[in-house]
């Protein structure tokens, strides 16, 4: 039973399962962020080693998304989804019982592998299940809500679990949810064979892009602690460029490429990914910065920090499910993207004015609501554009591509904004400023940089998304 013939009620139930699996993967990142100080104390992490609780997951996740998406097209997206959820669930259990820093880092890498497999095919499955444009727009809106609000919800869950139970439960909570998702997905989704690995698993290309992406993300996260001129950063960065350049050459010449380059002839696909990169860089960095700001300057504990984020996912939910589809239908995705990205930049510029003695209701809350509402309008339009040229034969690839763009953007945003905030704070301390004033100054610079990322997305949308572009109906991008 394919998407078009699956009963409507079953399609929406299946969407709920896909979104639950996606939420599980997204929550894990922010839940762990809140628990990091306690994990450091309990397992004896060094300050630099603690970063690898996050980085090990991110490197595996970002590096494997593109390959996992293509595997879904070739051997069946259901198989890849089930395998990914199973690996993620087992790895979560191993994270929870880890008794040393090395065990936790290894389990987190395995979590990233499972998360990449599960996440890479979800958007492609949604596009296949909902062929009718109106239904597809609503389904993508629901998926976008989960993506946009998942990290903020994770901060709340992380605060509750860490404060009331222990950091171990930040991982244990994934186990029953993961098992339920595997069982429901097995029953709900039809079996898929796919054309098989011989139809397009470009092994040299897979090795080049996976190695290149992993090294790129490694170089970015290492740049937080070392300068770009350091051998620990510059070496992997240069090698990643060489590998990725080799991947592009390979895709241009291979008979069965992993990523057919003609997919980028679609302005919608190219533009959506170009907009996605700076948007996620700014938004991911914004969530990371705001969590630190609330804890360090407003003295909120983990639980109250999570609750302080609630207005953002609430605004995202109201707009992405209730309004975003109608806005895109009436004004067009490009107009919605330009207006929404401009509003996000405005909200971030409001935060760039926050003083050291800020009041949450006056100085933080209005910006959270504005940014959340704008993001709720932008993300569904962007996801729809990213998948607009995908056919059933390559929807997993298109899904993996947009997810890869998101993860690279998240790594860039975190590294750049953390470096800017640290440099500005250090400069102010050297000038004799108090610690609170110096911290606030660092946050203001980083928020301004986040706004610049959002405005870069506006430029990309204006220059590239000039008109809708679709490949001819029924023609796969690798035809």
Automatic annotation (TrEMBL):
PROSITE patterns: MFS (PS50850). One of its GO terms (cellular component) is plasma membrane. Gene3D superfamilies: MFS general substrate transporter like domains, Multidrug resistance protein D. The chain crosses the membrane at residues 12-38, 50-68, 80-99, 105-128, 140-161, 167-189, 201-221, 233-253, 274-294, 306-328, 335-352, 364-387, 408-433, 445-465. It is found in: Cell membrane. Residues 14-469 form the Major facilitator superfamily (MFS) profile domain. InterPro entries: EmrB-like, MFS, MFS_dom, MFS_trans_sf. Keywords: Cell membrane, Membrane, Transmembrane, Transmembrane helix, Transport. Its main location: membrane. Pfam families: MFS_1. GO terms for molecular function: transmembrane transporter activity. It is a multi-pass membrane protein. This is MFS transporter. It comes from Polymorphospora rubra.
